[in-house]
Amino acid sequence: MKQLMDFMEGKPGEKQRKAVLRLEMDYELATLFEAMGESNKTKITACKKNLERIRKELVALKAL
């Protein structure tokens, strides 16, 4: 029964991956804020690209 409940809730480790992605997102947002303060366009672009990757993965995991 526990295996069935785990299956219905999602794959094992999925919760951990969601948590890691949220931490990555927080870090990238802080980095983006810093880059905007410095007017560093290269860093801003890189942060936006990383945030988009994280967003897509969270959507795929149905965490957003």
Describe the structure.
It is a single chain. With 64 residues, the chain is mainly alpha-helical. It contains three helices and no strands. The longest helix has 25 residues, at 14-38. The two termini are 28 Å apart.
Which helices and strands, and how do they pair?
Blueprint: H1 2-9, H2 14-38, H3 41-60
Helix pairs in contact: 2-3
Can you give keywords for this protein?
mainly alpha; 64 residues
What is the gist of this entry?
By secondary structure, the protein is mainly alpha-helical.
Distance between the termini: 28 Å
What's the tally of helices?
3
- The average pLDDT score comes to 87
The major β-sheet equals: none
**Shape designation:** elongated
**SS strand fraction:** under 5%
- What is the C-alpha radius of gyration, as a whole number of Å? 16 Å
